[in-house]
Design brief:
The chain is mainly α. The protein has helices spanning 2-19, 23-44, 48-65, 74-99, 120-129, 131-139, 142-153, 158-165, 169-190. Residues 29-95 form the RNA polymerase sigma-70 region domain.
Length: 199
């Protein structure tokens, strides 16, 4: 337990140094966290190029915004950034897919790689950020929304969410239940029954 506390304090000190513009601290932070972030992103996204870009974007964001770290557990803070960068990447892919008017030529063999379909989890991740679910998410109260984003969108555990948001684990569970109920109600309002008939 003491080792984890020391690591958290060490990460906080590194982030303060990064905020002050120390590239050596950034390198140490990267060495500590890039491995597990890469592994966790890979479980959510099958495209290694997207994972590489998201990991790079995550640490660019950390370099630019380390001053915004408020002392919460660094791993949770880093994962929140990485998960949001992954969502951004998926949004960009979705937009590119909608702009593409010609079907993919699957007969080409010169590229050496076939386009991979997004996993079910990736589709859920992008759906949670925009479309009806994203709209409904914006309609629920902010303290419930941040719990839902942390646990569902960012994939954090109850413990990680509690540390990230600075609230007890029991409160995370209670808010998550309320958030799901409010989200269902908001979605029901956004999705009227077909043809305007009775539900």
């Amino acid at each position: 337990m003491g080792g984890q506390r020391e690591k958290d304090e060490g990460d906080a000190a590194l982030l303060r140094a990064v905020a002050a513009g120390d590239p050596a601290a950034m390198g140490t932070l990267y060495d500590r966290h890039a491995g597990w972030l890469h592994a966790r992103l890979t479980r959510r996204c099958a495209d290694p190029e997207v994972v590489r870009e998201v990991l790079q974007d995550t640490f660019v964001t950390v370099w630019r915004s380390a001053g915004a770290h408020r002392g919460e557990e660094a791993g949770g803070w880093l994962w929140t950034i990485a998960a949001r960068r992954l969502i951004d990447a998926r949004r960009a892919q979705e937009r590119a897919g909608r702009l593409e008017t010609t079907p993919i030529d699957t007969t080409r063999t010169g590229t050496g790689t076939a386009p991979s379909a997004p996993s079910a989890e990736e589709r859920v991740l992008t759906g949670l950020e925009y479309g009806d679910v994203g709209t409904a998410l914006d309609r629920i109260s902010p303290e419930l929304r941040e719990v839902l984003r942390a646990t569902v969108v960012d994939g954090l555990t109850t413990r990680e969410t509690a540390r990230l948001l600075g609230i007890p684990e029991g409160t995370v569970k209670t808010r998550a239940r309320r958030a799901r109920a409010e989200l269902r109600a908001a979605l029901a309002q956004l999705t009227p029954s077909p043809m305007g008939g009775p539900a």
